[in-house]
Amino acid sequence: MKKSLSILFVLAICTGSLFAQYNGYYDNQQGGQGGYQDPYGQQGGQGGYQDPYGQPQVQPDPQNNYQDPYTQQQGQNNAQYGYGVQLSSIPQNAQNFIKQHFANVKVTFIERDWDDIEVYLENGTQIDFFPNGDWKEVKCYGNMPTTILPANVMNTIKRTYPNAAIIKIEKQFTTFEIKLNNMMELYIDSNGQLLGQKWDD
Question: How many CA atoms lie within 13 A of 63 on its CB side?
Fold first, then answer.
């Protein structure tokens, strides 16, 4: 019995010694008292933290500046998206287009998403803009402003169908697709060259 107790006593002393040595080694590896050792090997010091990938933290912009994803223009974040947005929130060149060609027509509704801006006027006109504010399509069943198209394009339309009215214009790079109220569609380049026409059925 005494021999068994002696063996247990010796084992307890050895176990305690090994545990103490392990704790000392662990503390040294963890950066001392309360230090933080990043699992990727970055030393954090007293409760500090360092990004394991070495990337600096990005601070929020105190002025809430906005960068348009299409135009890459920096400015105040006043852009609005959805239904019924304000005219002042769309790109300035789109506002200028409306003022230039529809100066006396009231804007009644604007819808904007990430790839299109649709503006509706009180006379039934619909204008579609690209996200950067360049116009791409105009539908007008009243009097389409002749100032939208280059003069040589307008001359080609008048020469081809002098009694027809324009009800839709779509810009495709350097070509214009023009729909007339006689159900004809014309394709004219920016030089006024008639590229083709077809019956819009």
Answer: 6
